[in-house]
Design a protein that fits this description.
Length: 346
């Protein structure tokens, strides 16, 4: 891999819809080791918004202009069907790539993309920012403390109420659009389950015998807990969702020292049992949300100072589970993955 200088890495953000404007641009701009030097959008209104939000950034109309712009990292947040061709072109042009989910339509295509990245000695990093949500980070902390015993059940719900369905490709059920909830929030739910409990095969049934139940919905008027983690010595219940998306939508600064800090009253319920099966309830603080860590770790990895925050191999494994979920829905059968799917590290 070519040497990287000490100056901030030059980033081009491809796409300035909701994802690019809200979930990528503020986090890139808040990362000292990155410089948001360019944005790609052919939409005049979005281009005007990008100029207003980031006046020092060059605005390109086409990705091809970006590949020739001398940038080092491309963050791709465009329509799902463009993810693979844009990532392939960026990698072949010599750029490292952060690729929004889903990284591909299926696991085979994701593997092909991974091979292109390796052939060009470039980093290809799936944008699984919800690994840095306050709820999943709290669950990981409690698991690491060993207070739940052997975990046998994980429930994750990412739900909202939308009376009128989304328009455009995001709300489309057409396979060629790669839209719908499975390819949207479903990717995050599956990724989180595989982070908490290793070697998932597919509800998800894990090789340990544990079960993960993920629910993603846009028609849930009254929700259940955001997360529920049950073990042989206790359980953890988290009722509130991560607040970073709301903070970004409200114009919050990801570089602020209090970014992602949860306010009192948003604690999680931890219930543990002693050997006589007597329960003890405790309200435990939620970990702060840490989406900015994703791009900080991305910059460090490109500089050779750490590992990718999300490996492309993890992205492939998540797509294997996505493939199984789609096949199970189509056939009405249980689909078993051989070998079982699993993430590189947790």
């Amino acid at each position: 891999m070519s040497a990287v200088t000490d100056r901030p890495l030059s980033v081009v953000l491809v796409g300035y819809g909701l994802g690019g404007r809200l979930f990528h641009a503020p986090l890139i701009a808040a990362t000292p080791d990155l410089a948001l030097d360019a944005i790609v959008t052919s939409n005049p209104e979005r281009a005007a918004q990008a100029r207003h939000d980031h006046p020092d950034a060059t605005i390109y109309q086409t990705p091809e202009q970006a590949w020739a712009g001398g940038h080092e990292l491309a963050a791709i947040s465009t329509a799902n069907i463009t993810h693979v061709p844009y990532a392939k072109a960026a990698l072949e042009a010599g750029l490292h790539v952060v690729l929004d989910k889903p990284i591909a339509a299926d696991a085979d295509t994701a593997r092909e993309l991974a091979e292109i990245a390796r052939a060009h000695d470039r980093h290809l990093i799936p944008y699984q920012n919800r690994r840095w949500d306050s709820d999943i980070r709290t669950a990981q902390r409690v698991l690491a403390e060993g207070r739940l015993g052997n975990v046998h059940r994980f429930e994750s719900r990412i739900v909202k109420m939308r009376v009128i369905p989304k328009e455009g490709w995001r709300g489309s059920a057409a396979p060629e659009d790669l839209g719908g909830l499975l390819y949207d929030l479903g990717v995050h739910a599956i990724d989180q389950a595989m982070q908490l409990i290793d070697d998932s095969s597919v509800i998800l049934t894990h090789t340990s015998g544990a079960i993960s139940i993920m629910t993603v919905s846009q028609v849930t008027a009254i929700g259940e807990p955001r997360m529920l983690l049950l073990g042989t010595r206790g359980g953890l219940r988290i009722d509130v969702a991560d607040a970073q998306e709301v903070e970004l939508a409200a114009g919050g600064d990801p570089a602020a020292p209090d970014w992602g800090v949860r306010l009192p009253g948003t604690e999680a319920l931890l219930r543990t049992f002693d050997d006589a099966s007597n329960p003890t309830d405790q309200w435990v603080p939620l970990e702060r949300g840490a989406w900015p860590d994703f791009y900080a770790q991305t910059a460090a990895a490109i500089r050779g100072q750490g590992r990718d925050p999300v490996t492309i191999d993890d992205g492939v494994e998540t797509m294997r589970v996505m493939d199984a979920a789609r096949l199970a829905a189509e056939t009405g059968t249980i689909v078993r993955l051989e070998p079982p799917a699993g993430h590189t590290y947790h």
